[in-house]
Every structure is written in structure tokens, then in C-alpha cells.
Amino acid sequence: MAGRGNAMRQAVGGKVRADELHARLLELQELSLQELKAVSTTVDIQELIDKAVTKSSGKPLREARMAVCYVSNAPAIEKLMELVRNEARVAVMSSMFSSDIINSRGRVVAKAPPIANEEEDLGDDGLRFRLFRHARTKIDLIIQAFVNPMRSTILREHNPDLLDILTHIQHSPWVPPGHVESIIRVLVAGFQGDMLIVAHMVPPQIEALVRHVIEQRGGDMQCSTRKGCNLKSLLGFC
């Protein structure tokens, strides 16, 4: 379609017509959203929320903060693989064929590749897409059931400011030189629920933190393309 559009633009008077058709296509894509049916499910997480509040309430700020850090582990690859396999067995057709990923305006922004029932290669695009999708669902649950209730409790009971956070991180070997103020500000914003600030500041701070730790351990940040190099070994986790 892109090739035909380019050919039309090169014809006499074709650019105007191509622009008209493109505008109409975008209009129809947005209208197509009205044809989609929402699929949702509800989960009662009130019991989990109550437990999370109990873990963080009535404690000194340092203990409450540590409780948030240990509230849950990251989704395990083995568990995610099991979810993907079960999904492939139940939803056979959706696993066999690729599907379009559309945004809020009805435009196709990506394609979800198919996956074989017994696919085990983590480099497979179809498998990776489904692993990340299940991981996102798991992380969303952790945030809603544990992290947000605990964050709200800490904010209500302690309302941590810049100085409070400074006392917790100023001697941390994980904090790169020159990044103390930025990390303090993003942590305070996180406790206050200012996700706009968090979304903009967290990625560069995480990158700087990982680079700092790897270099402190004598690692080479350029080794990720070399065989046998992995982040866990560089960080000293294995």
C-alpha cells in the first residue's frame, strides 16, 4: 500500500488525491474503534490491599520503605512461560496467526507475531511479546494491590520530603556521583503520586544507576553484544 501511495503521488495531480485518501483512511481507522467490543474481567484485591496497608502502617519511615521494596518479586520467567503455554493451548487460533496492535486512534502501531505451541526460544518475537504482556499484567496487579496502597499509607503517615529521602540514599553504593538530587526528587515524586515526573525521570536515572554499578564492578558496558556476557553476572547476582 505504501508503494502504491508513493506511485500515486508522483503522477500528475496524484499528490492531492493521495492526501485525500490518506486523510479518509485515518478517519475510517478512528471510526473502526466503535466496532470493537471491550473484553474485561474483575478481580477482588481488597484482601491483598488490606495486607499491604498492614505491612506499612504504624512503622518508622525506613521500615515502611523497606516493606515496599520486599512486597513482591519480579515476575519469574518460568511462571510467565507456563502462562504463555496454557494460553497457546486454549487460544489456538490467536497463537497461530499474527494480530494487529492499534492505538487509541485506531492506527496499527505494531503486529503481534504468531507463536508455536512448544516454542522455548526467548529470542522468538511471538514468545517475547506474550511474555511481556503477561509480565505487564502481573506488574499492574502488584502496583494496584501492594505498591499504591503502601505508598499512600507512607505518604499519609510520614509525608517524606527531600531531606527524609536523602538520609536513606546518601551513602548508597548504587547511587552514581552527581545523581543524588535527581534520585531524591524522583523518589519524592513517586511517594506523592506524581507519575508525570516519575515517567520522565526514572528511565535516565535507572540507566545511570546500572552503568555505575557495572563499571564499579569492573564491567564493560559495551560487552552486551559479546557472547557470554549477561547483566546478572556483571551486577554480581550469580
Work out the helix count.
Answer: 11
User: What's the shape?
Assistant: extended
Helix percent band: 55-70%
Rg = 24 Å
Proportion of residues in β-strands: under 5%
Find the count of extended strands (DSSP E, 2+ residues).
2
Q: Strand-and-helix sequence, N→C? A: HHHHHHEEHHHHH
Give the end-to-end Cα distance, rounded to a whole number of Å.
50 Å
Main sheet record: 2 strands, antiparallel
Structural class: mainly alpha
List the strand order in the largest sheet: 1-2
Average pLDDT number? 83
Low-confidence stretches: 231-238
Would you give an account of this structure?
- With 238 residues, the chain is mainly alpha-helical.
- 62% of the residues lie in helices and 4% in strands.
- The chain contains 11 helices and 2 strands, in the order ααααααββααααα.
- The chain has helices spanning 2-10, 14-32, 46-56, 61-69, 77-90, 92-96, 125-158, 162-169, 180-191, 195-216, 231-235; strands at 99-102, 108-112.
- Strands 1-2 form a two-stranded antiparallel sheet.
- Strand 1 and strand 2 (108-112) form a beta hairpin.
- Helix 5 (77-90) packs across helix 7 (125-158).
- The radius of gyration is 24 Å and the shape is extended.
- The protein starts with a helix and ends with a helix.
- Residues 231-238 have low confidence and may be disordered.
